[in-house]
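Sample entry (211 residues):
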Amino acid sequence: MVRASRSSRRRALALALALGSTGARLARADAPAEPRPSRTAQLALADGHAARVELYVAPDGERGFVTIRDSSRVWTSPLYPLWGLWTADLDGDGIDELLLGVRSTTRGGDANAPSRTVWVMGWDGRGLYPIWRGSGLARPLLALRVHTPDGTRRAELLARERASGSARGCVETLYRWTGFGFRARARRPATCPSSYVQTTVDRPARAGAKE
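Predicted structure, serialized as tokens:
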């Protein structure tokens, strides 16, 4: 009974995504029997095991939800204005944090609203809890990937961003977690992404010299 209820919740949320993206009146039978995730990832836990994380995003990319499979339990989040998902051990303690790409309606810096932000969330076995849901990064964010330097356990972020001020083009910035937010460690000019599709690279080239 529990599994059926949780599966029904996923189907109901998938139907809500379809309704929100098309504006059509769909019958419940039109919802997929088991929606397919847009992205999956493994979340390293304190007991040495890993939970399976799945991201479901509407066809228009405006909303989504997350499910976490921890042992026999399946947890489903509410709908969020999601655009991406990553797992990363930001502090090097062997336990992953969950990074959610969330669209914010708050204007910050030279970014137009809605803008792309990153939330850092933790998992306690019963649900997600916020670690950091601050403002966006230093510049308008276009794309993001997780980077773990060789010989370390502490993940960093490589962000493709629009150049600030009157400068044209884009930059790639290397960010490190400070415990409450991210600090830029290096930045270099970069090619602007042709699309805003999320990418994941295990060992991308390090950013250039520090500013």
